[in-house]
Amino acid sequence: MVTLRALALDDAPALTRIYSGTSIRHTTGKPLTLDQAHHKIRAALVRAAETPRAQWSWGILQEDDLIGLISLRRRTPVMGTISYILREDSWGNGYATQAAQQVVSVAFTTAGLNRLEAMHHPDNPASGRVLIKAGFARVGTADRDTGVGTVPYELYALETADA
Ligand SMILES: CC(C)(COP(=O)(O)OP(=O)(O)OC[C@H]1O[C@@H](n2cnc3c(N)ncnc32)[C@H](O)[C@@H]1OP(=O)(O)O)[C@@H](O)C(=O)NCCC(=O)NCCS
């Protein structure tokens, strides 16, 4: 079972290992430098202190190993989006699914949201499986400008029963 925790500045080296190799092929496209990792963590800590809170970022831990990052962003007062990335050597163990399930639970309780959305690159079916296993349903596509053209991302949504 993975656990989630807030990021700390000394997670930066682990973050650079997460944002590398195949993990970035369908996400940022670029490896993260140590400086960028520090910046990313600082930005997450600043956003964590905002009221009302619009972003939650957690490190995903398998025992003591920081294997990934998962974020929840409030887009409207009641709608949010989730995104995640796991270090390549941790894939295939159900870890992303476990992390997503925990974030869904926070979104519908602490964050007070009633709808979540997420999307993934069409060539990244593993991410779609994670969303389905976390309770999302595919609702269509959303065009995203990837810098080298527009790509129809697969779009998923999950609503609470009282939404
Ligand atoms: C997507 C990602 C988070 C999956 O992490 P993970 O810990 O391996 O996920 P899980 O083990 O919980 O589930 C993966 C599922 O995808 C399936 N899968 C893996 N490769 C697949 C493929 N090529 N085609 C279809 N399904 C695939 C697995 O079989 C599993 O489903 P199952 O349990 O029904 O068998 C990870 O690959 C990743 O970090 N990718 C890069 C970043 C990214 O794409 N993030 C998503 C954008 S928000």
Give me the secondary-structure topology:
Blueprint: E1 3-6, H1 12-18, H2 34-48, E2 55-62, E3 65-74, E4 79-86, H3 95-108, E5 115-120, H4 125-133, E6 137-145, E7 150-159
Parallel strand pairs: 4-5
Antiparallel strand pairs: 1-2, 2-3, 3-4, 5-7, 6-7
The structure holds coenzyme A.
Estimate what percentage of residues fall within beta strands. Answer: 25-35%
**What's the count of strands?**
7
Distance between the termini: 29 Å
Number of helices: 4
CATH homologous superfamily grouping: Gcn5-related N-acetyltransferase (GNAT)
Note poorly predicted spans.
none
CATH class: Alpha Beta
Structure write-up:
Helix content is 28%, strand content 34%. It has helices at 12-18, 34-48, 95-108, 125-133, and strands at residues 3-6, 55-62, 65-74, 79-86, 115-120, 137-145, 150-159. Strand 6 (137-145) and strand 7 form a beta hairpin. The chain is globular and about 40 Å long. The two termini are 29 Å apart. The structure holds coenzyme A (COA). Coenzyme A binds at residues 23, 26-27, 83-86, 91-97, 118, 120, 124-127, 129-130.
